[in-house]
Amino acid sequence: MWDSSSEEAVLEDPCQPPSELEKKDPRSAAEMPPVGEDGKTAAKRGLLERLSSGEIIIGDGGFVFALEKRGYVKAGPWTPEATVEHPEAVRQLHREFLRAGSTVMQTFTFYASEDKLENRGNYVEQRFSGQKVNEAACDIAREVANEGDALVAGGVSQTPSYLSCKSETDVKAIFRKQLDVFIKKNVDFMLAEYFEHVEEAEWAVEVLKESGKPVGATMCIGPEGDLTGVSAGDCAVRLVKAGADLVGVNCHFDPTTCLKTMKLMKEGLEAANLKAHLIAQPLALHTPDCNKQGFIDLPEFPFALEPRLLTRWDMHKYARDAYNLGIRYIGGCCGFEPYHIRAVAEELAAERGFLPVASEKHDAWGGGLAMHTKPWVRARAQQAFWEKLVPASGRPYSASFSKPDSWGVTRGDKDLVQQKETTTENQLKEMFEKQKNITGMEA
Amino acid sequence: MWDSSSEEAVLEDPCQPPSELEKKDPRSAAEMPPVGEDGKTAAKRGLLERLSSGEIIIGDGGFVFALEKRGYVKAGPWTPEATVEHPEAVRQLHREFLRAGSTVMQTFTFYASEDKLENRGNYVEQRFSGQKVNEAACDIAREVANEGDALVAGGVSQTPSYLSCKSETDVKAIFRKQLDVFIKKNVDFMLAEYFEHVEEAEWAVEVLKESGKPVGATMCIGPEGDLTGVSAGDCAVRLVKAGADLVGVNCHFDPTTCLKTMKLMKEGLEAANLKAHLIAQPLALHTPDCNKQGFIDLPEFPFALEPRLLTRWDMHKYARDAYNLGIRYIGGCCGFEPYHIRAVAEELAAERGFLPVASEKHDAWGGGLAMHTKPWVRARAQQAFWEKLVPASGRPYSASFSKPDSWGVTRGDKDLVQQKETTTENQLKEMFEKQKNITGMEA
Amino acid sequence: MWDSSSEEAVLEDPCQPPSELEKKDPRSAAEMPPVGEDGKTAAKRGLLERLSSGEIIIGDGGFVFALEKRGYVKAGPWTPEATVEHPEAVRQLHREFLRAGSTVMQTFTFYASEDKLENRGNYVEQRFSGQKVNEAACDIAREVANEGDALVAGGVSQTPSYLSCKSETDVKAIFRKQLDVFIKKNVDFMLAEYFEHVEEAEWAVEVLKESGKPVGATMCIGPEGDLTGVSAGDCAVRLVKAGADLVGVNCHFDPTTCLKTMKLMKEGLEAANLKAHLIAQPLALHTPDCNKQGFIDLPEFPFALEPRLLTRWDMHKYARDAYNLGIRYIGGCCGFEPYHIRAVAEELAAERGFLPVASEKHDAWGGGLAMHTKPWVRARAQQAFWEKLVPASGRPYSASFSKPDSWGVTRGDKDLVQQKETTTENQLKEMFEKQKNITGMEA
Amino acid sequence: MWDSSSEEAVLEDPCQPPSELEKKDPRSAAEMPPVGEDGKTAAKRGLLERLSSGEIIIGDGGFVFALEKRGYVKAGPWTPEATVEHPEAVRQLHREFLRAGSTVMQTFTFYASEDKLENRGNYVEQRFSGQKVNEAACDIAREVANEGDALVAGGVSQTPSYLSCKSETDVKAIFRKQLDVFIKKNVDFMLAEYFEHVEEAEWAVEVLKESGKPVGATMCIGPEGDLTGVSAGDCAVRLVKAGADLVGVNCHFDPTTCLKTMKLMKEGLEAANLKAHLIAQPLALHTPDCNKQGFIDLPEFPFALEPRLLTRWDMHKYARDAYNLGIRYIGGCCGFEPYHIRAVAEELAAERGFLPVASEKHDAWGGGLAMHTKPWVRARAQQAFWEKLVPASGRPYSASFSKPDSWGVTRGDKDLVQQKETTTENQLKEMFEKQKNITGMEA
Question: Do the Cβ atoms of B288 and D289 come closer than 8 Å?
Fold first, then answer.
């Protein structure tokens, strides 16, 4: 367990060391529930049932970043056509998260709305159609969920249409198309995630509620609130009032910042006498230098973020802090690889009563190093070593902080109107010129 | 192409921009060679044939690190039982490297010698046997190699037996057991890699030569030479004299350091009037602060190396520098993920005449960002931006350099004698105590 | 002038370039005012007259830090016995600040209260007496002030007595002893500085007001307010109500942080409909990582702060930002050397109408480099170069941030009760032990 | 004493703790030697006598940098007209170094050759004449030397004439003019310092030898040797053969780098069977990232070097390492302030048998903090704390390393031909343009 004794928040009841725990394989025959024809498990307990009984739900990591590095997603459009083009790659990643301890398989439907699949020259809508991409995502998620005791969450995210100032009716119609697939494929619950504007998130929640299934909603905002200035607390209140059973944040900021936002959301809900379950799915990237827009504004986004990647030990601290704050749906977003989720599951193993399957390849706190051939590496097989280590960057020409872009462009700005056509050379040149003036970069 | 105009080494013949290149899918039917029953491709050109004709061979990345993060390899023993336990995970990683541009599928047989599979409590030898692990590795590598125009390399690495001062006969017997599998499975060539002592590497080469197949050999040394003080140049000379067709370095140091070592090896061979092909497979981790033992000695090894991870742009520079130095087998080791190999392949696309398959998800130099919804991110869709960017660490409490461990323990030291038994609590305590005295760490 | 065009606050009326300005020597005969017998200049305009007419007052830098480095002040007690022991050293430093552009010579009477001069074994009270130290300080300040058009400020600072919970009567009696000297020596105005508790600062102001002279008051607090939790705005309000003509902050934080605090103070005064002149005298040390106690809590305090030292270019930005915020008494504290004050004076030369004398040895924005022998150094003789440069630390083992001590000890704690006796070995051992537990440092 | 127990070089005979030592005031009446009319002390032991008897000579710090910050020297020309314009400022700095432990007062005659005093528009030669500047420097140095047991060294440095390819006769004539003053003023010994080319240094030594006094010579080179490629070892050999009694390095590099160079010089002398005393006077600035030209090439030179400044604790290590290497004339150059020299003197107090006068304001290893009011600051009053501390930079936007300029311009290049005329606007523009192309800086 992460030792927070020297920090402000002290856990009062220290719990059993995880090393004492049995590694429980969720795939073991005895526990495997019967599976119906539509892929629905007859016996699996639902999301709200689990949360209400105090169970800790562990989410998965960010698929677009992980699959971009594996060669199946294109940075820029970030669309999930891999579900159709390379299902084996998507399936493998789901499986790794399941083994790592995830109790939710979120359908790989990020940015799978029709308007996004045809934005700026994207070929996916025309070649495959949004319906096919969303259906394939559901099938893969269900297949892997049934290899363990996991639930399937159908996910929607913010749309280019909203950014381009389309009407509520238009935007809701887009969400409804994805929802139709989720209902047909009978996912276990809904998750509206990655919203910069609370208004659009409310619309999404309202549509998803039509399904009758539990609905979660996360915004990609920091402690300063949404892009139009609505405070974090008010965002939470509005989402719960719109019908969300589960609210929180995902993406855009590191765990430390996300938990600050979560604290504000929690306080907002308490002040409004509202109840909801809490969810956090932050970046696995350190972002102490971000402004309101999060990591998108960092010059390193998205191709030079490596030095910011969290270690597994950072994840122990995140999991403990999130738990102490009362969050019970604890997952991740961009940057999270399976070993990050495993670290979350290992930190909370005592509370959950079992270790994830993938811990068969990972003894607690570096214990596996006891098998290393070099004695000085064996000497690192201890919690005290890893917990205190502040890793060097190995990059003497790198600073700690970057200055984020600050274009100040928000919804309604002509630069945010999306288009079906590929960005032209002229449009790009204009952008390069603008960038030069804002950041002082030499072309 | 990496712009080295402001650096010392200037490429004399600037070549066509890769954007002009056709993305050639090595899996296209027309090119797919017939495959025999034993998995051997009838028509594939061999390694030496390719190298002699000037073809650039692109290696793959490090499997143990990549699969550790995916949950299939245990850090500490670092053994490859996943070939038996989870072949689908190993296959998927091979496939990603193939798509990224690798022309070699190296069998996942690192540390698959019998003495390692039973060292310090490792269960693999007893549960599966080394033979089974090695055979499974060959089958998977061949299966994926045949999905493209790739060769299979059978790999051996340094042994606990040598560290424990076993005899030449004993050590060679161990290599020979792996070789038997490689011959049976008819791999295309042999690769002896990750040797800290040139003597053991010579023994490995001598054994592998018995196969009649081409043999490559790489040492995990830096510019200071091997652990017994043999210079990098002399190491190269001795390996070629022992029979290696291909010599170089792998692992332990970053590309910059490895290329310094390669320069010394090349000069050593020239001084001795010897000819050999050159191979480099460095870390994808920055290690400017390492001493002779490489990254093993860094306190961050192996669980807090994240900030040191190279970006894809670092890889462009590496590929160009390696090419300019005359190296024609260019690959990677620990830390390399598929997108790193793709960057190598993209940098050398003009020289090779084609782009890797996975570039369908990656336009040159961030070009895909032209499809991003945010205008300031679209403004990063240019080489000038990424080539100059020095990424921030996002870690204000991190320094650039670490002080490596310097236990000074080398072959023959009692701490390096390996054992079948699990490391005992007492042995660990002794190590912790020693570490405290050496590094001043508080227990 | 500092170019803030790319920053949020933009100066609307760009002013004349300083290079056009005449270097006006305040010591030139024509301007030198007649000097009376008691050292008072008959014709010098007073502080409030100057401030009310819009004149910019430039303070001096921190004497204890500067003289500690020159060998005349002891870090720990930080007392100003150098006025008696080595008046030539104190006089020289005053003179350097005068030449650099300071319009105030503050008496070197920091920590010159009787209770401090005899605290923890300090010999000064007994050997010289506080009266003698304070008188000598006044004489030196007046002598140098009269070499130019500068005013003399008599300064008092927080007392050990207050920390030890002595009564208002006792603490005021201590301030009154120093005041008696200032009245006798007829200083031009009073400055109560370096207060962590607003209550003690109020007491000081009330005593100093008895003189009938203008009184300024600065607290060493950050945006979080004083150590008892009084907000920065409320501190300002209470000080003005107590009689201060001039309020602000000094010491403990860097310019950026101090200006944040000043903004809060200004807003507090406006909300209370109070008017006062504003003063800022921050550190010349970067302190982004400090908590409420400021740089005292940094492990680097006071003997390893070098890497944090501001450059002259940082000072240009500070001067401009302070001016834009409406502050008209702009000076410095610990870390400020004469060249830092000169940079402030150079940045504001257009507004003031003249350059400081010491600019005869410093052309604007590095212009003097045009005389360098090396061409690439001559190429640095331009504002564009220095304004954009982010200096490297040259320290690869150093991080950007430290974790400040957080003992949480405040007034009333037994560890804060001061004593005449030297700290005993046992007391020190206790401290070392406490520190080990708090910071994890190894003894 | 610096604890080097955890480092490679271990001092065999640990010596008494300095705290046991009596603080010996060199100015105490009993010891003060009689002083002759010309300022020469009748009884002072000479340089060689002292060195031969094993005495440690402590040099002073760099005057041009220290006085630039105090407002008396112009960066760019770096000439010492302050000896005439503000003798009180020069005298005060000498006095501070004397108090700090310096046993040599080096005349402030750096760059005081005639050709430098009139280079590129410099007014000094015409307004005062080189003779007057040099004479005033000698008088001030002698005056302060006689306040203690210090010697006066007459210093010469490299000339613009040599850079502009003037003849040996011309260059020697320039040195001889300064020598005439030193002979007239009867300095105790000669020091030729800051030479980038060994040939010019030889000429200087040959001229200075004409005086019959001891001659020291230091080059501003690193381990790579002089700018024409003469190795450090060969430089030392040639200087001793030219007549130098004392050889070594000064300026341009940090202590670590300078001691590497000194090791090479020492080995060169031993290999040539030559004997000479060794002297080191490095920067007080960290320069791990410098190339052959030293800190001149860093973009931070000379106005943004603050973060690189050494702490007093760095100086303890330097003094110990220099002593262990056999160097017995240990001083400093640019960046050294009096407290740095005091730290050298404190580290070597046991070997010298006394502490410097200024230690009356500095207890060993932060001991004075025992008198601080805050308990957590008192807890820093110990060697263990300061010796291990790696100070943070407080600069999250700063990297550790800079890329030095690499113009590759050397003696004979037209850009190095010096001129009497002020650099013209056109010449500056050309430089700015060149710089942009070399460093990629935007104008």
Answer: no
**Using an 8 Å Cβ cutoff, are C207 and C235 in contact?**
no
Q: Which residue has the tokens 């974090």?
A: A232
DSSP-assigned letters across all residues of D11-30: -SS----GGGS-B--TT-GG
Within D325-394, residue ranges assigned H as helices are 338-347, 349-352, 375-378, 383-388
Chain D 250-279, residues with CB within 8 Å of chain C CB atoms: 254
Using a CB–CB cutoff of 8 Å, tell me whether C406 touches chain B: no
pLDDT of D442 higher than 60: no
CA distances from C94 to C100, C156, C357, D402 (A): 10, 18, 14, 36
C-beta of residue C329 within 8 angstroms of C-beta of residue C278:
yes
Q: Letter for the amino acid at D338?
A: P
* CB atoms inside a 10 Å sphere around CB C421: 9
- Return the residue matching tokens 């030198």: C32
The confidence band for C314, taking pLDDT boundaries of 50, 70 and 90, is: very high
Phi-psi region of A440 (alpha: psi -120 to 50; beta: other; left: phi over 0): left
- The radius of gyration of chain A's CA atoms, rounded to the nearest angstrom, is 22
DSSP string, B93-138: HHHHHHHHT-SEEE-S-TT-SHHHHTGGG--HHHHT-HHHHHHHHH
**What distance in Å separates the CA atoms of residue A184 and residue A191, rounded to the nearest whole number?**
16
Q: A interface mutation test: which of C3, C292, C400, C442 has the most A CBs within 10 A?
A: C400
* Chains within contact range of chain C (3+ C-beta pairs < 8 Å): A, B, D
| Residue C386, C-beta contacts closer than 8 angstroms, at least 6 positions apart | C313, C365, C366, C380, D303, D304
Cβ-Cβ contacts under 8 Å for A237 (sequence gap 6 or more): A268, A269, A272, A274
How far does B264 lie from chain A, in Å, by closest CA?
A: 24
What does the alpha-carbon distance between residue D99 and residue D137 come to, in Å, rounded to a whole number? 19
Token representation of residue A403:
């200055």
CB contact under 8 Å between B75 and A308, yes or no, is no
Pick from B391, B272, B435, B255: nearest CA to B327: B255
Chain C to chain D, count of Cβ pairs less than 8 Å apart?
355
The neighbour count for residue D166, using CB atoms within 10 Å, is 17
Task: Give the tokens for residue A113.
Answer: 């709305």
- Return the residue in C397, C438, C439 with the most chain B beta carbons within 10 A, the one to mutate for interface testing: C397
pLDDT per residue, tens digit, chain B (443 aa), is: 777 654 443 333 222 333 434 444 443 333 433 333 344 445 689 999 999 999 999 999 999 999 999 999 999 999 999 999 999 999 999 999 999 999 999 999 999 999 999 998 899 999 999 999 999 999 999 999 999 999 999 999 999 999 999 999 999 999 999 999 999 999 999 999 999 999 999 999 999 999 999 999 999 999 999 999 999 999 999 999 999 999 999 999 999 999 999 999 999 999 999 999 999 999 999 999 999 999 999 999 999 999 999 999 999 999 999 999 999 999 999 999 999 999 999 999 999 999 999 999 999 999 999 999 888 999 999 999 999 999 999 999 999 999 998 887 878 888 888 888 888 888 888 888 888 777 655 43
d(CA A431, CA A427): 6
Q: At what angle do helices B232-242 and B198-209 cross, to 10 degrees?
A: 20
Phi and psi based region of residue D229 (left: phi greater than 0; alpha: psi -120 to 50; beta: remaining):
left
Residue at token pair 């399937």: A152
Q: What is residue D248's DSSP assignment? A: E
Angle formed by the axes of helices A168-184 and A130-145, nearest 10°: 40
Contact C358 D71 (CB under 8 A): yes
